[in-house]
């Protein structure tokens, strides 16, 4: 096979263009970010033609990236997995030697290494929902947090919802992948599904739409369910809502970390994540999933509702102890 000369930077640009319609927006953005380090390293090392790169150089890049970025093992693994995917693609356009991707070494992780163990427990979730129900009923924060907890959705799915995706009569939401108009789902078409809603959740959505929601359209002419005066809510805003609501001082008014609430930087809109007790939307999702499993909801039901495989459910979302899992299975054993 005759290789065709190409610069690393040009190859990465072609790769990103080729994968743009295949990858979720967040994944594509991640690949672009990770591969930018690779092109920077190639420039630093004077590698102007990707044809010449070797397995040893790929190993040297791995060590450089680990040290330069001070990466933990799970981050290093993510970087190298993306690089291997790129190198394999480069083989298909005759930019590197065949099977070079097999020389990209991927670090192995210890059991449960890299698993995010942050979780919002059910008692705190209920306290937040009670507070919102009482003091901020049908507000944007109320609707966003209630949807995250009740549906177990990712924030990208909550953001993607339109008013027309809500069926109040049959009490469900339809989650749809619409990448062409700015609301892709993490799992693309596989993330599309119907989500049943409780009567209480429907009542909240009805009141939100009727009395509080800004009657606007987004840049694509769609009517976002979670709207702001400017259009569709941003994912960062959803994240900030959760960080703010899970700060202890937000509800209780005092700080368990002996900080002065008046001067603490975590009370600023831009920095709520700097509170040691605040958690992300992922922790809300994880808490809701764990609560559902703990109360006896079958794993497959939770898997379908939350759009996550049972394998990933076990590893990343189910925070129950082995004993708690055993107790959840007891009712099925007793009936045998």
UniProtKB/TrEMBL annotation:
A single GO molecular function, which one?
Answer: DNA binding
Which keywords describe this protein according to UniProt? Answer: DNA integration, DNA recombination, DNA-binding
Q: Is DNA-binding given among the entry's keywords?
A: yes
Q: Which SUPFAM superfamilies match?
A: DNA breaking-rejoining enzymes (SSF56349)
**Name of the featured protein:** Site-specific integrase
Name the species this protein comes from: Halosegnis longus
Stretches assigned to coiled coil: none
**Where would I find the Core-binding (CB) domain in this sequence?**
6-91
Q: Name one Pfam family in it.
A: Phage_integrase
- Choose any GO biological process term that the UniProt entry carries and state it: DNA recombination
Source organism superkingdom = Archaea
Family annotation (Gene3D superfamilies): 1.10.150.130, Intergrase catalytic core
Domain Tyr recombinase per the UniProt entry, residue ranges: 115-330
